[in-house]
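Entry:
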Amino acid sequence: MAPLCNHLILKGFFTSPASTKFHGAYKGGLAAHSLRVYELLQEKCLTLSLDSDMSAGRKPLEIDTDTCIIAGLLHDITKVGAYIGTETPYKWNKQQPKGHAEISIERIKKFIVLKPVEEIIIRFHMGNFGLYEFYEPGSWEYKTQPEYHLRSLAKKKRNVSSEEKKADQEARYGKSWRNAMYHNPVVFWMHVADMQAVAEEKAKGE
């Protein structure tokens, strides 16, 4: 964690804006937004017991305080260095690689190991707004793959073994926002926390 923290300081995490002009568009806006997302996510994890057994589906992956800290505070580190300028409206840095959540995951994993649930939370924190990152808009994959059936496709067949059902479920587990949200409610609440933080910033005119 120490090298990661040093990296964030050196690269400007605490002085970067959260967007060009839409929310958190001021010096330090990214850090403020990330802190608020963490606070909201932690609150939901504590009050709703998001890692408990559910009536249907698989048991969610284990969530602890570290998971909320890592996912909440680091979900947007892709934005470090993404905007240039000294005041609103900032300009997009054309040297930035394209992508959002996947870039954050890639950068974090250079320093620490992410738990599966942490990676899932960060990957899908934008909900439907982030699906563009995984498939080209208009493509068959974009229209169908991100929202495949929650129930095992193997159940449409007859005489399917329990091993085949398990393999089918394992192959699809957490591979789309809908599936990840269904099996791990924290994914949904992470998206809600992100959207709420953005809404609060807009309401304040930040």
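Residues 2-133+177-203 form one domain.
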